[in-house]
Write a structure and sequence with these properties.
Length: 363
Amino acid sequence: MSDNILIITGGTGGHVLPAVNFFKYLEKNNKKVFILTDHRGSKYVNDINKNKIYKIHSSHYSGNLFFKLIATIKLLMGFIKSIMIFIKLKPKNIISFGSYASASPLVCFLLFKYFFKTSMYLHEQNSVVGKVNKIFLKFSTKIFMNFDKEYLNINKYQNKILVVGLPQQKEDNNSLNIKNKNSSVINFLLFAGSQGSFDLLDIFERIIKNLNKLSISKQFFFTIQAPLSKHLEIENLLKKNNHKFQIKNFYNNFPYILNQTDIALCRSGAGTINDLITYKIPSVIYPLPSAKDNHQYENAKILKNIGCAIIVDKNKISDDEMMLFIDKSLNDMNFKKKLKLNFDTIEIKNTNDLMWNYIKNAK
């Protein structure tokens, strides 16, 4: 029997990056591991040995009739290639990280699981179980969950749930959680994500225009992560208001930036929420309104419910309410102590170890 492990992922970085982190963990521990992704997700696997990567075509099914026709062709091509990959690798275990890109390979799993005696595991990053994971959950050995919460949409599969967190490159970040308390600068992070957002920039502009309402004498330094297409607009806003800043579409030293951040404005993808928890960053969160199953809002509620974030909607929250949260997070010592205690209620797990230990010991 083959000892090969196949990790299935694709689509956005939110699905692919945790899969890549788990792949690297297994590879470092000398496991025979391979990764299967779609062409969209392949940009996140550039630092992996090419002989370990398999790429397939995939597509979602939204759009007009012509798009759906093209999507059907892509899915058929992806399914045929997935069959070839399964026959070649005969994987003993597969771990799927969700997204529409995993659908075709998981159908192949159903075809071959008895021939190759393959076990299938799922990982769910978000607070709402995604459509593909939900469809294939009944065939899985276990579903690894990122967040410790009640998942009402999969009630009958509670026995399959194991809360493990999100796979990270470095599991132990405790040494990074000591910020420079003597700094005379307040570090503000705008984390706009790879897609960017004009709505998020509207919130940012409102914050900039209301900074004079804060009872803070320190200077702000803004670190901006945003797509190139948004840079000029953000630069003009900050220069107009005489603020110091740095802006890039990608930072190689992002853990260091997170460690220095005092407060953030961001979306609420699973990876972002995990970063906020790991580095204990109070945040103004604007969930992506178009996120499937409203999962970004559900993710954000994890921090809102413990008082470590405020969820904003540009049409439903006043500037005064938003600025009050920022002011208290930066200037109220009792509130800052409470924030730390609340963050500490969320356990940061050794995700990679938990997942692999379960898989290798499963019967």
